[in-house]
Design a protein that fits this description.
By secondary structure, the chain is an all-alpha fold. It is 66% helix and 0% strand.
Amino acid sequence: MEKKVRKAIAERLKTIREELRMSQKEFGARMGTSNTYISTLESALTGPGYYILYKLSKYYNISPLYLLHGKGPVFIDLEEKQEEGPKPETVSTPGPLPPVHNEPQIREMLAYFERSPMVKYNILGYFTRFVIENKTLIEEDTRKSETVESA
């Protein structure tokens, strides 16, 4: 990979990591890589390989197109990632939260979700992967829950 290209990728990666307010150590640990490796990427000593692009996409929803070419949105559109999962129009929006969902942990999560891009993209990334990987189980659980509530 040409040094000029590596430098542009390095700058974009560092900017994203800093916007997520993460250290190189935290950023790399989530993907199972070392802070030293993240440092070599951000210093343009090496460029990201396919596996790292995959991990950046999987764990942080970073668009490989943006990272490599600076084109398109920084983060992958989560609706596009749901191609195998339920389409947004097929998932009904929940009504008012029951009192049991008004727990302090849920309120805290929602507060962080609104204020922190890192929390938002991590939760949405996890949610998207979970729905795609467990669609059948979720539908089954939903049917059971609706049956119990209507009884």
